[in-house]
Amino acid sequence: MLIDSHAHLVSLENLEEVLKRAKDSDIEKIVSISSDIPSTEETISIAQDCDYIFATTGVHPHSADQMSEEVLEGINNYANHKKVVAIGETGLDYFYMNSEKEVQINSFTNQIQMARKHGLPIIIHVRDAHEDMLRILKEENLPNTPGVIHCFTGDHETAVKYLDLGFYISFSGIVTFKRSEELREAAKNIPSDKILIETDSPYLAPVPNRGKPNEPSYIKYVAETVAEVRGISFDELAEITKANAERLFRI
Description:
CATH topology: TIM Barrel
CATH superfamily: Metal-dependent hydrolases
CATH class: Alpha Beta
Strand order of the largest sheet: 1-2-3-4-5-6-7-8
Oligomer: single chain
Structural class: alpha/beta
């Protein structure tokens, strides 16, 4: 049984069919990710109708300029919902730079404080911003299990810096791509109690479905690749990542 630890269900078409394929593929649980207040509301609605789906609340760095006192209060309120298991996805993205650095940093640090207030893990998106990200995380008073670096794309040395701060490391379909040798090397060496897998649906579909809309049932291809590079069976990898997701999100 697998857990997709990061999927944007609100962005998927024909969701009923998608979820049926997920169940048919032995996907036991899905953490459905929000990127702003409207998607939080939709995500919670989906989660309320399915006992195996869990929700998050937060503002993506692409939408950091939407952060306001009203939005922060919305996150605060939704963080109390029984189906909400994390704050995010939030973080820093200096590749697209949809918002200025200081705007992103302000939005991110506000959400770190919200995660701390509610005792929830934080789901972090980081692209071309590891220096600022690591500095901020070191400065903040985070708990022993602060959250996850989702869709990790760095090398093992970078992963270790986040592991040293208590973070989990999550691998997406990118790990199956032909030119991702460095990423597979990182996946090989992450401690067993800190590794997660995800789809990031509908983005980043793994080989052999690269280029198609991604969905939770494709998590098996991520699991197969990570299991192979770690030299363990698919079932063992599934059990390890399932236990880690359940522990991190308390689901």
